[in-house]
Design goal:
This protein is mostly helical and about 290 residues long. Helix content is about 65%, strand content about 0%.
């Protein structure tokens, strides 16, 4: 009879994952990690309801002693910056740059993934190289270029800049998704009489929704938060400046209106959350439709 010492034992690295004692530790770690990311937003939300005197008080208070709901009303009529125009400019720049990026990057990604042509790898390499450049690095040259074109202070200049600098990521991320679709799918559609555009819009697009959504979210958020180029290109037009630039109008040399800084920051976060919620639903619908087909 085999001795008890020869009985194989499970390795501790496998048993530790199912050990009941490790569950509370993982739960505590998870809660601490969530709080680490949420507490700054909570402080910002609560600070937006405080008065400037309470925010500047030492020692600081966590909960507002008096809730100033009027901060979210008065900040729209401050003299530092035309905030309603700034919000509209931000939506216009981010939305238009996203649409322009998709209009160019989607066909480019499809063509480079499905067709072989001379210079294809060189083209993809150049597209990848442009991802290494950021508006903050080229802001002086961009200002000179758009000054000569009469684009300083104009929304269309920032739309072109944001679309150009996000084009490479959109092309590459959608290129990788198009490459995963078997060529037999396109060949079957072509035998049925479908054109290249019909194959792209009716066959491939429902299958690459995750890539399109990723490109949309990345481009929109990047354009929404862009600061360096907007600060220089739109410096002469306060009404056309996005929220990321207008936010610093509340930061003065001797005083900072923190209640408005917090309030504008909250307003700037909400549209991004709404966009993600809308796109997430369409993403699930697109994936389901592709699976059924």
């Amino acid at each position: 009879m085999a001795s008890a010492s020869n009985t194989p034992r499970k390795s501790s690295r496998y048993t530790s994952a199912t050990d009941p004692g490790s569950v509370p530790l993982r739960l505590i770690f998870g809660v601490a990690l969530v709080l680490l990311f949420l507490v700054p937003y909570l402080v910002m939300i609560l600070g937006s309801f405080k008065s400037l005197a309470e925010i500047s008080r030492t020692p600081p208070t966590f909960w507002p002693e008096e809730w100033h709901l009027g901060n979210y009303i008065s900040m729209w009529s401050v003299t530092e910056t035309p905030l309603p125009h700034n919000l509209l400019a931000t939506i216009t720049i981010a939305g238009s740059a996203t649409l322009l990026t998709l209009a160019v990057a989607l066909p480019a990604a499809y063509y480079t993934a499905k067709f072989r042509f001379p210079g294809r790898l060189a083209f993809l390499f150049l597209v990848l190289m442009t991802q290494m450049l950021q508006p903050a690095v080229l802001v002086v040259g961009l200002f000179r270029e758009f000054f000569l074109l009469g684009g300083t202070g104009q929304l269309w200049s920032m739309i072109l800049i944001n679309a150009a600098f996000n084009m490479s990521f959109g092309t590459w991320i959608m290129h990788s998704f198009f490459s995963t679709i078997p060529k037999e799918v396109d060949e079957s559609a072509r035998l049925d009489g479908a054109s290249s555009w019909q194959i792209l819009w009716r066959i491939n697009m429902p299958l690459v929704w995750p890539g399109i959504v990723t490109a949309v979210i990345f481009t929109f958020v990047a354009a929404w938060n862009e600061f360096a180029a907007s600060l220089v290109i739109l410096s002469g037009s306060p009404e056309n400046q996005p929220l990321s630039v207008a936010l610093f109008s509340f930061v003065g040399q001797y005083q900072t209106k923190w209640q408005y800084v917090f309030g504008v920051s909250i307003v700037a976060i909400v549209p991004v959350l709404i966009l993600f919620a809308i796109i997430e639903k369409k993403l699930v619908a697109g994936l389901t439709a592709g699976a059924i087909k």
